[in-house]
Specification:
The complex is a heterotrimer of chains A (about 270), B (about 220) and C (about 600).
Chain A lengths: L1 H21 L10 H34 L15 H30 L1 H6 L7 E9 L2 E6 L35 E3 L2 E4 L3 E8 L4 E5 L4 E5 L5 E5 L5 E7 L11 E7 L1 H13 L3
Parallel strand pairs in A: 1-5, 4-10
Antiparallel strand pairs in A: 1-2, 2-3, 5-8, 6-7, 6-9, 9-10
Helix pairs in contact in A: 1-2, 2-3
Chain B lengths: L40 H34 L11 H24 L3 H31 L8 H32 L4 H31 L2
Helix pairs in contact in B: 1-4, 1-5, 2-3, 2-5, 3-4, 4-5
Chain C lengths: L12 E3 L9 H6 L4 H31 L6 H6 L11 H20 L1 H15 L8 H20 L22 H4 L4 H29 L12 H32 L11 E2 L2 E2 L7 H35 L6 H14 L15 H29 L8 H23 L2 H7 L3 H31 L5 H27 L13 H5 L2 H32 L30 E3 L7 E2 L8 E2 L18
Antiparallel strand pairs in C: 1-4, 2-3, 5-6
Helix pairs in contact in C: 2-4, 2-5, 2-6, 2-18, 4-5, 5-8, 5-9, 5-15, 6-8, 8-9, 9-10, 9-11, 10-12, 10-13, 10-15, 11-12, 12-13, 13-15, 13-16, 15-16, 16-18
The chains are: A alpha+beta (about 270), B mainly alpha (about 220), C mainly alpha (about 600).
Chain lengths: ~270, ~220, ~600
Amino acid sequence: MGLLLAIAVWAITLAISIPFVTQTWWMPEPITALGREIDSTFNFTLIFTGIIFLLAQAALGYTVWRFGRKSEGPASDTHGNNRLELLWTVAAAAIFLGLTLYGYTVWAETRFIDQRQQAGKQPENRIVVEITGQQFVWNMRYAGADNEFGPTDISLIDDAAGNPVGVDRGAPAGKDDIMVPEMRVPVNMDVEVLLKSKDVLHNFFVPELRIKLDTVPGLVGKLEFKPDKEGKYEIVCSELCGLGHYKMRSFLHVVSQEEYDAWIAEQASYLF
Amino acid sequence: MPATLTEAEAPPRLEPGRGGFVTLPPESEGDRGGPDGGDPRLAQRYRLAVWIGMGGIVMFFAALTSAMIVREGLSGDWQPFALPPVLYASTAILLASSWTVERARTGLREGRTGPLRRWVNVSAALGLAFLACQLLGWQALAERGIYLASNPANSFYYLLTAAHGAHLAGGVAALGYVWARLRGRGAWPTREAAVEATALYWHFLDVLWIYILGLLLIWR
Amino acid sequence: MTEVQVSPEVAEYTEVHRHPEPKSFVWKYIFSIDHKVIGIQYILLALVAVFVGMGLSLLVRLRLVWPDQSIPLLGQLFPVGAPDGVMTPEFYLAMLTMHGTVMVFMVLTTAPQGGFGNYFLPIQIGAADMAFPRLNMLSFWTTFVSFLLLMAAFFVEGGAPMTGWTGYPPLSAVPEATVQGIGQDLWIASIATFCIASLLGALNFIVTTLDLRAKGLTMMRLPLTCWTWFVTAILGLLAFGVLLAAGVLLLMDRNVGTSFFVPAGLVVSDKVIDHSGGSPILWQHLFWFFGHPEVYIAILPGMGVTSHVLATFARRTVFGYKAMVLAVLAIGILGFVVWGHHMFVSGMSPYSAFVFSVLTMCIGVPSAIKTFNWIGTMWGGKIRFTSPMLYSIGFVSLFVSGGLSGIFLGQPTIDLFFHDTYFVVAHFHLIMGVAAIFGMFAGLTFWFPKMFGRFMDERLSKIHFWVTFTGVYAVFGPMHFLGLLPHPRRYAEITGVDYLGTTGAADLHMFITVAAVLTILVQFLFLYNFAGSLLRGAVCKEDNPWEATTLEWAIPSPPPHDNFGGKVPHVYRGAYDFSLSGAKRDFAMQCNNDKAVFPAPPAAGD
């Protein structure tokens, strides 16, 4: 029985570990420098926890096998071993805290956006896109030629007339705001997204960017990224938002600067 | 082969920290007035239970407090209002009731049933008077158009006073239980447990009310 | 009044008063104040609830692989949610919500603590009952009412709530957002009722542990089961009050128009919602301040049972008893300061996220200590492979597997990718779900002869163990890979997102569903074994069939009405004195001080 159990534990351990090594089911390629850094944090953690996982399960199986055999003599009556216990306490603390500290710089890069902006460290040339979630679509707003978002008013909201966030088209800043259902940004450009919601919680998640953030009604969330690979990437909702949650998605198109300029000009031309 | 050791042979660490031996649960025969009664340590157990119960109640009110502070800090729709003056009357009543509960305890300690009964009744009456005053307070606010849902400041006022009132109603019920116990021929230790536990809980409600009043005054 | 046969193990008793056994059926079995009957009532409630919860998970799994399949009976049971037996996406979400709620509250919180704790805490500390037997009865029946309220949510207009077991507002607070009726209100009412029941129960457990221990039973001689029940009760006392407050606020937002959690200016399907200025994040803070301790409320008793069973069947004392107690305390304390790791992507301050992350990683340390000490307990032992031992070894394996994925999720940078994906589902199911349930399996098979005077069928238990152990790994192992795709949670179908169709999610889902169906089927074998053994199991004649050391094994099986027959034993030694050197027998019961058999003086308590 002991050997059987040991083999079962070892076999299960291997069965779970192998796909992590062969990467049969894996994350899509990251498209930002930050994404690659997050991946390296992930890989680092994977190696450490993988070793602990293999060692712990192997030790469990071995113990069960070795001490499950019929043997002469009584069981050992040791009550513990302070030195050993101290050793693995310190080792566990060092590994776990080390991993956290290792990830800290990446975390700071991802989320200390307000702090960077207050310090005046934000990139000069960037695109700001306002993204508003609603059941069950994403609305993207570009500020237009004046680089300024127009004021909004909930009484102006009219989904059917193409004004899902209630932009005041009468206001000077609101006249040239562009509303689109899919997002388009030029490659190698700093992008800032402002995340809002009209109704319930949603979550803006692009797997290739490796980052996500809730859209909370009443608050404005911020994310920054700089994609360096052209392509069409899916934006999926990652916070339960109601019956259509599973189909609430949109796309992020990363295109060349020329393509982007042409597209934004085309969008602007529809306004007048 | 049952091996029986005398107390002297037993290892030195036999005496427990607090546990000691088991006494009867309160529903046992002795509780209803048998000669061997309950155990004087029953009062201690009941008081321990009240102390621990306070932990749970404090967490409940701490959650409401933090919700109130966060909610007030978050948005611009918080409209403070003057508390109804009747609250000061209810505060005085509650403070007085703590004093009368203490008088009842004194009666208990001196073994005088008359004063004990009298002061328990007075305390319960004061508790009911306090609840009546809280209702008057709600009525006064409603007359000023300060309703439960019209502003978060109001919501928290109604919620905190209602939650405290519900706990106080529990205290009045406990006094009612004591009153019923005193009418019977219950054993002394059990009576003592009921009175001591109720008194402790009552003082706690008193302190809780002062805290809520302070919160409403400072954070409105 | 039948006289209790005094066990020869017990060196000395203190006489206490006996109280009479109730005679009528209602007072003996329904409104009983006997902690043993109440414990069994909790276990039966959890058993009903676990099959309900499992049935719901089956529906969830079926919908994921065959979204258009009609299930005959379902259409008649839920004509709105499943017209013609085909589940709608909202029905899927309702099943998922109810699965989570039923499992977390009605199973993981009731059986380990209310069930086994109620039954064995008083006996293991040598008491005749809980400190407050009537309060105990009230706790159970309040829990029962809460269960009925929750079940009622299935059958009201609009059906069961679909907002997840976390019930995040505004989705849960604004009826227009889900187009649902009273189901969500019943859900909140049920949870609030459950909170009250759990608070009363926690109070009772704490006083019992502190005040009713037998003579000589110091805290450091307590069995680890008692330690975990005690710490769990403290967690419950401090956590459930907060959830109760949150529930009251949410109920008010839904029904009387207050704005605690609902912000101003919401527009749901072109309709302006009349609320002002609330904060959805506030709910998340309150909920997870409860929610994270709740995880430990579910798992700690399982850890206690595992330590207990491993020591008993390895014939070894618990390795590092003191460290185990300290680890339980550390997990309990840290459990209150890490709730923020559930909210890394909710937009909280990045500084506090970092603090929460560091504290979260600290929990890994006591968890690692426990794991190593479990292995250390078996090391050098003479293992007896009974079914409770198998379940306990399974617990350790699952605890390691489920715990290590927490190292990923506790780091905010990595959580940015994995939050709300199947990786999280895999993590918490392994550790909080099945590990805790393996603790219950171990407890039930271990204590069954004591509770009912009959053994469960070892052969059936072992078959059940092997299928369930491999089955749960087959179900939750692949979910890690779904999480890597990344497959977001709570998706009714995989058709809504393109990449899920091309990266093998469908195959993984199919594999998981097949494994889940097999695992669920074998649970009926367990049920059959449970019910069959109650009626026809081999009779357990001895007091101590497992040759264990704690006090419950010093009294008859099943125990008499007042446990020790109007007496309480004295305790002379720690809870796990196995294989003492120089002893004539390989176990020394806590109440045994026979110097002829155990020449060495008892250890001081560690």
